Amino acid sequence: MVITEVTSSVVPDAMAFRIFQDMRGVQATYRMTTASTTQLMQSLSATANIMYVEDATALGQPNLDIGVFGVCTVDGERIMYRDVNLVDNSVSGLMRGTAGTAAADHEVGTAVYDLSRGNLLQSSYQDYIVSDTSMGDGSTTVFYAPSINVDDFVDSSSEAPAIEVYVAGIRQYAYSDTTATSQYRWFVTDFDPLAVDFVVDDTAYPPLLPPVANVEVTILVRHGVTWYQRGATTPSDGIALQDTETIAARFLRGL
Fold first, then answer.
1. pLDDT score at 191
2. What residues form DSSP beta bridges with 172?
3. With the C-alpha atoms ordered 62, 103, 55, 43, is the resulting torsion angle positive or negative?
4. pLDDT score, position 4
5. What SS3 string covers 67-108?
6. What's the confidence (pLDDT) of residue 127?
7. pLDDT of amino acid 56
8. Widest pairwise Cα distance in the chain
9. What are phi and psi of 217, to 5 degrees?
10. I need a labelling partner for 13 at 20 to 30 A (CA). Which of 3, 174, 187, 241 fits?
């Protein structure tokens, strides 16, 4: 017995990219292609200042004259470097464990990915943050964020879960969120422009007070950007990213 199955759907070849988020929460997306990938030819200790790779041409050339270091990742470690030697395929002048990552030992054969600017997806296709910052004075409770267009992400009947509020760089949670610990509590009091009102309650323990004087109060929302071709009413037309012909998708594929 012979069974033949025919389908019009073909699984496309795999593609890879890396979304790197530093300790400040800033994200950057890099393509990971054959041309920008090599591997370790010798083990790399956590304190080593030089590494040997299979093909150093896969890594970007630094330009120290204008303050541009080379950047790569090995496992989860982000490494900056000052020099590339194409003769012996070495990378030296290493700065280990940068951008909040940890220096570590790496074995022979571990993949090394180039994170130079040439592999960075252009900013118009990166996630981004819209924010407004004001200064607390110890008595003001209402703070405004005119730069944030609420219509972009929420309707007026919701509690605007996408809004984040920070006081002195520390995230503070909405009054309705009883699952999180927060020194300050707030709720949305207006949408045009967006405004948040900090709850004042001297009877609470600990007491809820307005942001103290001379601290920054930041209100923000994070926006995502689709890399797919949009459908008529959807973020994607259903075509896999490997076959999508948008600028972002082609860049990530190395085209």
1. 87
2. 165
3. positive
4. 67
5. CECEEEEECCEEEEECEEECCCCEEECCECCCCCCCCCCECC
6. 83
7. 96
8. 83
9. -115, 115
10. 3
Asked if residues 50 and 90 have their Cβ atoms less than 8 Å apart, the reply is yes
Predicted pLDDT at 129? 87
What domains, with CATH codes, occur in the chain?
Answer: 32-119 (2.40.10), 128-223 (no CATH)
Beta bridge partner(s), residue 78: 73
The single-letter DSSP state of residue 125 is G
- Containing 251, the helix (H) or strand (E) segment is helix 247-252
Q: What pLDDT, on a 0 to 100 scale, did the predictor assign at position 156? A: 43
pLDDT means over runs of 10, the chain (255 residues): 66 83 79 94 96 96 92 94 96 94 95 93 86 95 92 52 89 89 91 92 89 95 86 86 91 90
Tell me the three state secondary structure of residue 117: helix
Q: Which two tokens stand for residue 191?
A: 């949408």
Residue type, 134: S
Q: Helices (DSSP H) in 55-154: which residue ranges? A: none
Q: SS3 of 208, please? A: strand
Assess contact for 188 and 194: CB atoms under 8 A: yes
| Contact yes or no for 125/247 (Cβ under 8 A) | yes
Q: Residue 89 and residue 91: Cα distance in Å, rounded? A: 7
